[in-house]
Amino acid sequence: MLILPSFVFLVALIFYPLGFSLYHSFQNWNLQISPVPLGFVGFGNYLNAFRDPTFLRSLANSLKLSIMATAIEFTLGLGVALLLNASLKGGNVIRAMLIMPTTVAPMVAGFLFRYLYYVDGLISYLLPWFGVSVPKQGILGHPSTALWAIAFTDIWEWTPFFAIILLAGLQSIRAEIIEAARIDGASFFRVLWHILLPNLTFVIFIIIMIRFMQTFNVFDIIYVLTMGGPGASTRTLSYNLYYEGLVNYNVGYASAIGWIMIIIIAIIINSFIIFAFKGKEL
């Protein structure tokens, strides 16, 4: 009886919505046509998704955004963590400043960068100074730059997350090991490759997996910055799910997209876990 309230809460918030969406992913249900499902269509919604060019593009955008944002965030975060680990002057102040972007809500960050990306915004003003041309439509108005703008916003917000976690991992490594390697004549890059990174392997896999999943499901920044445009050039799976479910009211098709996302994320997580623990006993 003591766990009954928790069980009811769990069913109401997790299992019922999952069951509801799974059931209706096999139904022909569009609220613009009928207030109730029109019948069972089997895997029709799933097959239609993979025949839909917009869905395929949103899947490609989700993977592209996740890979490039996570890779850049990890690289920059590792660099910042290594610098802070070298006992720089004012390190505590820098750490406090690093945390600030991660405390900003993604919607707020999106609004901030939307103004910076305007044709007469600060970023559009500064880029030509570095030899980077800005499209006449603006950074967010051109398909070749809009997705990069979303990625840059995500990188600005979440690189500190990588830096702080990796810094904690670096500071957990025994200093005697590093000192012994340096006495033996090991260069910085040898220490990094043979000592630091191997000791950070588990931490690296965990934070990359977390951030990859978060970026794969990103919605709020895209909604604020581009609303999936121009055209469908920045539409991701999460935005496509929102658009089909709450704009087109195609509940059956949106439910199928949601379950495709769940399956893809489950495959990615399992791949990460298998790779991370390869040759190790759990």
From TrEMBL:
Keywords: Cell membrane, Membrane, Transmembrane, Transmembrane helix, Transport
Membrane topology: Multi-pass membrane protein
Superkingdom of the organism of origin: Bacteria
Boundaries of every ABC transmembrane type-1 domain copy: 59-274
InterPro entries named among the record's database cross-references: MetI-like, MetI-like_sf
Annotated transmembrane regions: 7-26, 65-84, 96-117, 146-170, 191-213, 256-277
Main location: membrane
PROSITE patterns in the cross-refs: ABC_TM1
BP GO annotations: transmembrane transport
Protein localization: Cell membrane
Pfam families hit by this protein: BPD_transp_1
CDD domains the UniProt entry points to: TM_PBP2
Any one Gene Ontology cellular component term annotated for this protein: plasma membrane
Keyword Protein biosynthesis found: no
Family from the record: Belongs to the binding-protein-dependent transport system permease family.
Protein name from the UniProt record: Sugar ABC transporter permease
